[in-house]
Amino acid sequence: MHTDLSPVIAATAQWLLRAYPASGGALADALCEAQARQAVTVAARLRYPTAMDVALLGVAGPGGSARLDWITGADGATSADPDAWRTWVDEVIASWAACLLTDPALAGPAVAALAAGGPVAATSVEFRRLLAPDEADRRAAALLRHPDLVAPVASLHHAQLVARLGPGQALVA
Q1: CB–CB of 95/153 below 8 Å?
Q2: pTM
Q3: Closest Cα partner for 47 from 102, 104, 99, 125?
Q4: pLDDT, tens digit, for every residue of 97-133?
Q5: How confident is the model at residue 173 (pLDDT cuts 50, 70, 90)?
Q6: Which of 3, 88, 113, 130 has the fewest CB atoms inside 10 Å of its own CB, making it the most exposed?
Q7: Which residues contact 105 (CB under 8 A, 6 or more apart)?
Q8: How far is CA 122 from CA 41, 95, 163, 171, 173, in A?
Q9: 98 φ, ψ to 5°?
Q10: Which residues fall within 8 angstroms of residue 40, CB to CB, at 6 or more apart?
Q11: Rounded to whole angstroms, what are the CA distances from 6 to 14, 68, 106, 133?
Q12: The pLDDT of residue 57 is above 80
């Protein structure tokens, strides 16, 4: 059993990068990946804030990318798809990450919630590309940060994220 969220973070970030790829070469790919990973990391830590939550995820599994693939019209992503990493994609985390990437009004409070959440506190420096992307970051992740393009994914669990970040919501049980 995994004791951390790294498989889910890696798979979910990979799904976002394949669904909304960077354009502009290797540097753009790296900048887009950094932004996706930061957003997915914040979303994952909000979704699974305790060791018990992570353990339950390891037992139940994250659910996979089938619904996300269907929503985005991904070709070739069927149940016979040989890409085993797709089984580690978490739909809620992908949706929350899409929300964080397209709405700065949610990204700041999300990182702040992690900072107040206990032993795995976050800093704004750690998530700079998510919170304060520069022009190169924006160009690299133009598709990933485009609100209209990611709306079908972001809207899936937007209300849950807003509720999670609402006043009085504890991150640790």
Answers
A1: yes
A2: 0.89
A3: 99
A4: 999 999 999 999 999 998 876 545 556 788 999 999 9
A5: very low
A6: 3
A7: none
A8: 10, 20, 20, 13, 18
A9: -60, -40
A10: 9, 12, 13, 16, 93, 94, 97
A11: 12, 20, 23, 23
A12: yes
Give the tokens for residue 161: 């994220």
CA distance 34 to 137: 9
Place of tokens 């520069």: 134
User: For residues 140 and 132, what is the distance between their CA atoms, to the nearest angstrom?
Assistant: 14
Please report the pLDDT score of residue 2 as a whole number: 44
pLDDT at 25 over 60: yes
Q: Which long-range contacts (CB under 8 A, 24 or more apart) does 110-117 make?
A: 110/42, 110/43, 110/46, 110/161, 110/165, 111/42, 113/46, 113/164, 113/165, 113/169, 113/171, 114/42, 114/45, 114/46, 114/171, 116/171, 117/45, 117/49, 117/171, 117/172
